[in-house]
Amino acid sequence: MIQPRKEVALLIETSNEYARGLLDGVVRYMEEYQRWSIFLPEQGRGATPPKWLKQWNGDGIIARVETPEIAAALKPLNIPIVDVSAARLMPELPWVETDDKAISQMAVEHLLQRGFAHFAFCGDSTFAWSKLREKFFVEALAAHGHGCHVLDLPTGEDGKNSTPKNVQKLDRWIERLPQPIGIMACFDIRGQLLLEACRELEIDVPRQVAVIGVDNDRLLCDLCSPPLSSVIPDSRRTGFEAAKLLDQMMKGQTPKEMKKLIPPLGIATRRSTDVLATEDPLVGMAMQFIREHACDGINVGDVLKAVDSTRRILEYRFKQITGQTPHEAIVHQRLDKVRQLLHDTDLSIGDIADRAGFEHVEYMSATFRKKTGLSPTAYRRKVQPN
């Protein structure tokens, strides 16, 4: 006898890249394990609960509980619910969420590697995840002995980001910041607003101000001028794990983990941070050579020849400014290329190793696993849709 499908509502907006990644993760779970009948209202972030929810007699819900209205609508329902928001408006619910601490630490590492001595964060206190990213960004910088300038630009009541008040506030803030400076935007839309302000103020990006966002909304990032670098959250995995958790609950099982943080995948580096902010010409030339040739199979000896320096002098000055050795910088550039090729292509692992400048596939795989915790094949399964 054919069992009826479970009815599951997805109260997740479809208006941004992160939320669409969550939905894709749910779809991937259903394709692998369990088919459901899905109810997905078309809504934006912060939208009111769908009217049919009060009379709905389904089996489970995955929701972004980011407003009191959504929380109030869900509280009376006596069915399994999984929250995929950082707001924690219903702390009694099990949740799966992106790891904001890891996101902020990754952004700090990215900006430190570019030699910045001044840092800033542009956030939106409307959202709990923005406040968390600000907190962790400031803490990570403090651990390296750096301070941080902070600006809060709350989303307007109409849901708009570029209100005249916000634009004026942002312009005044940017003009007062020391330069050169690396700025983390709480998400890509804030990053876009920062880049627009810099363009209007005739500030050179990334030489005077470098900007990194979060979400890697490709269309938005590529349309920015210059294109916006962005931390890549693993939203597909977040949606997949939320679906897995809900499935267990609907089957009457008690999951081992009722709260789960999903680390980010990496950083998509674009022109908005493609700079080395240092007055040391030796380190600047070395980093430029590494960025241009890391995937050509170079070693530290090739870098020394290109910049005409001894190993001891270069390694000391390079480490002082970037926090890593030239060899580590070469490997970092190659691993970024590996991530990009695993995400964007169907090339074999051997071909990827060759294009990223690794002589041996085994060494690439071991290095990649050490850095990410995953083999290249496992990483590809995570980031590429079926």
Automatic annotation (TrEMBL):
It comes from the Bacteria. InterPro entries: Homeodomain-like_sf, HTH_AraC, LacI/GalR-like_sensor, Peripla_BP_I, XylR_PBP1. The keyword Disulfide bond does not apply. Keywords: DNA-binding, Transcription, Transcription regulation. GO terms for molecular function: DNA-binding transcription factor activity; transcription cis-regulatory region binding. Residues 284-382 form the HTH araC/xylS-type domain. It holds the Pfam family Peripla_BP_3. This is Xylose operon regulatory protein.
